[in-house]
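Q: Can I see a sequence and its folded structure?
A: Here is a first one.
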Amino acid sequence: MSRRNLRILRFYIVGWTLAMLFLAIVRGVGTEELGELQFDFKSSILISITLGPIFGVISGFASIWAEKNLYRKLTIGRLLIYRTLYAIGFILFMIIIAYSVYQVYFGTEISIITFAIDDGSGAIYLYILATDFFMTILRQVSLMLGEGNLTKMIRGKFYTPREESRIFMFIDLQASTAQAERLGHVKYSMLIQDCFNDLGIAVEQNNAEIYQYVGDEAVLTWSLKEGLIKQNCLKAYFNFSELLKKKSEYYQKKYDCQPFFKAGLHSGIVTVTEVGKYKKEIAYHGDTINTAARIQGQCNALNAQLLISEALKNQLPTTDFVFMEKGEVPLKGKKKDIIIYAVSRKQ
C-alpha cells in the first residue's frame, strides 16, 4: 500500500476513534446527570474504542476507492450526493456491527429493529452524518494544502520559517501555445485537467508532493531523502511519460494530440513557511526553486526531455538511468554557470 493511502487510513481511523469516544463521553455525562443508572459508561467507552477503528478502516478504504475511481468524474454536487448515500449505507452497516458488539458485551435479547430505533438513535445517526461530512471537508482541505500539510499547519510547524533540504521538479507541457490555439481555451483546459490527473498517479507511485500548478506547468517536490530513495525524483517523470503513452489512443481521440512534457530538477536548501492572511498557503522560498525552473527552461535549447543539475546528479545512488553531460550552461539570474545533465532510461 502506498504512503498516501496509509495517510488516508490513519486520518479516518484517528478521526472516527475520536468521534466515537466523544459521543460515548457526552452520552455518559448526560446519562449520569439524568440518573439513568442502566447506562454502563465504561462499557460504552470500550465499545467506542472497538468501533472507532473499524469505522475508520471502512471509511478510509471507501475514500481511497472513491478518490481513485469517482472524484475525477464527479462535480461537487454529485460528490455530496455520493457521500450522503455512502453515509446512509455506512449507518446501516454500523447498526449491524454495533448490534453484534452489543450482544457480545451485554447479551441482552432484543431485536435489531428495536436496537436500531431506540431512544436517541436519531441523534446518533445525525451525529454520524455530521462526522462524515466534517471529515470529508477536512480531507478536501488536506488535498488543497497538499498531503500531510494540514496536520503540520495545525501543529504550527510552518508558522515560523525554517529550512529544509528538498528536490524540486518543474514539468511543463510542450507546444502549449499551439495546442491552446488549436483546441480553444475550454478544451485546452480539459486537456490540462486530464494530464494533471494522470500526473497524480505518478505522484502517488513515487511519493512526490504537488507544490503548485501554474497554467500548464506543475511543480513537484520531495524531501531530499524521499526523492533520492529508489530514485523517486527521476522515476516520477518517466512513469508519467509512460502513462501518457499508454493513454495515447484516449488523447488522440479526445484532443487529436499526444501530450508531451519536459522537466528540470534541482536540489538544495529552501525555506518553508505559512503565508497569507485571507488565503493561506504553504510556500517555499530560495534559489533552489529558481534554479530548477531555469533548468527546465533549457530543455528545448538542449534538445532534452529531462534535465537535472550536477548537484542532484552527484547525490543520486547507483542508478538505472543514463546521464549525458550538457556542459556548463548559463542560467538567467545566476552569476555562475551550472553543469547540467540530460537523463534517459537505460535500455
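Q: Show me another, different protein.
A: A second, unrelated one:
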Amino acid sequence: MLGSVTDTEDVLQDTWLTWHAADRTTVRSPRAYLVRTVTNLCLNRLTSARATREHYVGPWLPEPLLASPDAAEETELADSVSTAMLVVLETLAPVERAVFVLREVFGFSHAEIAGFLDRPEPAVRQIAHRARSHVRSRRPRYDTDPGRRAAVTDRFIEACAGGDLNAVLELLAPDVTVWADGGGKVSAARRPVHGPDHVARWILGILTKPQMTGVAFEPARINGEPSLLLTASGTPAGALTYDLTEAGITNIRLQVNPDKLRGLRPSGLS
C-alpha cells in the first residue's frame, strides 16, 4: 500500500495502539476492524506523501525490501510487491490504490471494501474498475522465469565488475531506461537515462567513481524478485531492480537514498 518500510512499521504500530485502546466488547469483527484501521492510516500517509514528493529531489522510487520467501509466497506475492508494480501503484490516487490492493491483492469483496472506506458499494466498484484498467495499461510485460532472471543477473554482475561495455550492452533492451533515487542525499542522476549506450556508459561510469570503491554487487531477492544488492564492507549501500523482457533488461531502478535502505538490513526484516 505504501511502498515504504518505515511508513509500514509506523502504521502497524499505530494500529496496535488503536486496537489496544479499543473497547473489544463493541468490536464484532476484529479482522474487519483492523483492516479498516490500517487502510485509513495508509490513506492518511499516502495523501501526505503525495504532497511531500512534489518537492523530492530527482526520481522517486519505492523502498527496497530484502527477503527470502518460500516458493508458495514467491508465486503468490512476487508480482504484487515487485518494484515495477509499486511504481505503477504510485500513479494511482490514494483511494484508488487502497481499493486496488484490497481487491486485487487481498481479495476483499466490493461490499467489504465499501464498509472499510465508508463509501457506497457502486462507487467502490467504479473505483476498482478504473484502478484495474489503469494498472493493466501500465504494468510492464516482462519475463518472470526465475531461472532466466538469475542467469541474466549473474551475467550483469560479471559484465559490470569487468567494466565490459559490450557485455553490458548485450544484456540491455533497446528501450532500456534507468532511474536513480538518491533523494538529494547522495550523488545520483536527477533525470532518467534512456537508451542502451547511454545507460551502459552511465552504469560503468558510476562504478569508476571514487565513492564506489569497495562497493560490490551481489544477487539478492528484493521486493520478491531476483535483483542486485549493493554492499560496501558488508553493509547495504543500495539496490538495483529491473524488468526483463524477451529483448533484455529494461526499466532499471537504482535505489541509493540512505534514508530508504532500512529494508535491506537484517533489522528491517524483524
